[in-house]
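Researcher: Good morning. I'm working through a list of sequences from a screen, and I'd like to move beyond sequence-only analysis. For each chain I'm collecting a predicted structure so we can compare shapes side by side. This is the next one on the list. No need for commentary yet; just the structure.
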Amino acid sequence: MEKISRELEDVKNSQQAILEKIGKIEVDNIELGDKTIESKFPDIYQRTAENMDAINEILDTFRQKVEEFGDKNNIDKLREQEEINNLK
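Model: Good morning. Structure tokens for this chain:
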């Protein structure tokens, strides 16, 4: 579960980086005035932002499931015991 959480966080960060790059291209294009970029990039940005919202929703839901699983199965106590055992 932790691995999936890390991977979802990585996807979220990647989406954020893509949004920033799209925004930079749009700003840089103000001087250039390329009509294809002007017409296509707002839609690309919107779809990417919607994907990021969906990823955030999945991540929040998954984090809640991880927390509930941990509480139900005393994961913190098991980790503490594992650390104690490793010290021996």
